[in-house]
Write a structure and sequence with these properties.
This protein is an alpha/beta fold and 494 residues long. The protein has 19 helices and twelve strands.
Length: 494
């Protein structure tokens, strides 16, 4: 491969977006694109068992000043298991933003053996600011900024103060990093990784937010984009506040499905024999938590965090888990001494005590807030919340709530306007609770040479995880032979 030799030009020559440093502004990147990596054992069970090696890639903190401060991005590599059919490197991103990705590509190979991962060198990556890469650590007292505004104006005012505090903590602890922890800079990091590994182009699998990162990469580096699979997509035109707002209606629909499932098992969970009765239990718990936090174990759960508990466990594979949690919370609210079960304990410990997980929401906030400027007027969020309550009583105050971005410094670059003809395969489920179906339609519209595969009538975030011969055959044809469907198509679960 000749990519390493031409890496300086390739990394600098970003696709025309009207945003970001031009080649002359980016400067000489040769000390980054020509670096030699020190591959070492990963010291992580999944990666070590797969025979992976890990290395730190040095990249500029600020690509507009490549002679300035540098940071590191942690990557892993597993060589193609089928070297006779090897066709390059496969990078990936698991979503978030803020999700660790060092083992994600290997986990795809382990969890989805029907796909031709063996034809690729599998490259995992913790994006800048996250995990083993140079980290953003805001020392937040809670695990996420994703809390509900609560049931009324007083609760919303509490949220405003809480989000302002989270933003201030980030500025105090990591203010020197924050302006550069962005999707555009992660895309630039990916192109440095490509050059260092001696490849001409990147193959890529992105999930959730990872689809936005993938689309930004294709816009900035179209000539470096090869086979691109974008699963459970983000509409780049609506990133980021619109992405979260669109979750509200989708989540309410999935909550209905969960309530119907739970009602059919009233003899087990005793939460009601009809959908409306089960929903009323959740609504009443939130209202009670607003009056007085629900004491369960060592935790006090209020109306800001109870909807987050529901949101975090809203999916068909976790219907039983959520029903068990709501049963425990209903007992605690009734005054019964309750110790949270393992799943609820882990959830509450993360949310209320900031127990670490594989999601770094402070770094995720840096990405979101660094990508796109959001309104600094609290009243605009309150109006959106009040408008949404009529049809989204549980999730409207969560999906439309104010975030730390209202108190963040302005982004250093304009948002990326994605509109290109890079071929890609977009996978979207009609019942996706996290990236609503219309998000995938929006990304398909922005990437004019893409094909949209719709998974019909399935509640899932992550289409490739659903057994579907139609999905498997379509993705395999693309990853193995580069063959996209001749037109958009609709698939069903087997």
């Amino acid at each position: 491969m000749v990519a390493a030799a031409v890496g300086v030009c390739a990394v600098a020559a970003e696709g025309a977006t009207g945003a970001g440093p031009a080649a002359s502004e980016t400067g000489d990147l040769s000390r980054f694109t020509q670096q030699r990596l020190d591959w070492q054992p990963c010291h992580e069970d999944t990666l070590d068992k797969a025979g992976a090696q890990c290395a730190d890639v040095t990249v500029p903190l600020n690509y507009a000043d490549p002679r300035g401060r540098s940071i590191t991005v942690a990557i892993s590599r597993v060589a193609a298991a089928d070297p006779s059919h090897r066709r390059g490197i496969m990078l990936s991103n698991p979503g978030g933003p803020g999700g660790v990705g060092l083992a994600f590509t290997v986990n795809l190979n382990l969890g989805l053996p029907d796909y031709p991962w063996s034809q690729y060198d599998l490259i995992g990556m913790d994006p800048r600011g996250i995990g083993r890469s140079t980290p953003v650590d805001c020392k937040w007292p809670v695990g996420t900024y994703g809390q509900s505004a609560g049931v009324g104006l007083t609760g919303f005012e509490e949220s405003v103060a809480a989000q302002a505090d989270l933003a201030a903590r980030c500025q105090a602890e990591a203010g020197d990093l924050l302006p550069y922890i962005t999707t555009r800079n992660t895309a630039r990091d990916m192109d440095v990784i490509r050059a260092v590994l001696g490849e001409d182009r990147i193959n890529y699998f992105g999930l959730s937010y990872g689809t936005y990162l993938g689309s930004v990469f294709t816009q900035m580096f179209p000539e470096r984009s090869d086979r691109i699979v974008l699963d459970s997509a983000v509409d780049p035109e609506r990133w980021a506040i619109g992405t979260f707002a669109d979750m509200g209606a989708a989540d309410e629909a999935v909550l209905d499905a969960w309530a119907d499932w739970t009602a059919a098992r009233d003899s087990e969970y005793h939460l009601g024999a009809t959908l409306s009765e089960v929903r009323a239990v959740v609504t009443n718990l939130i209202e009670q938590a607003a009056r007085h936090p629900i004491r369960i174990g060592t935790y006090d759960l209020d109306d800001h965090w109870l909807p987050t508990v529901v949101f975090d466990n809203l999916g068909p594979r976790s219907f039983e888990t959520l029903a068990t949690m709501i049963r425990q919370l209903a007992d605690a609210a009734a005054g019964v001494p309750v110790q949270p079960g393992p799943n609820l304990e882990a959830e509450l410990s993360h949310l209320l005590n900031a127990t670490p997980t594989d999601e770094f929401d402070d770094a995720g906030a840096a990405v979101r807030c660094g990508d796109v400027s959001e309104s600094r007027d609290p009243s605009s969020y309150w109006r959106a919340i009040e408008t949404a309550r009529a049809t989204q009583p549980i999730f409207g105050p969560l999906a439309n709530n104010i975030s730390p971005c209202a108190f963040w410094l302005p982004p250093t670059e304009p948002p990326t306007a994605v509109h290109n003809s890079v071929p890609a395969l977009i996978l979207q489920a009609t019942g996706d609770p996290l990236t609503a179906y219309q998000q995938g339609v929006g990304l398909h519209r922005a990437m004019t040479a893409s094909r949209l595969l719709t998974l019909q009538d399935v509640i899932v975030h992550g289409v490739v995880t659903i057994p579907s011969t139609c999905v498997t055959q379509t993705v395999n044809a693309y990853l193995r032979n580069g063959t996209l469907p001749s037109t958009d198509l609709t698939c069903h679960a087997d």
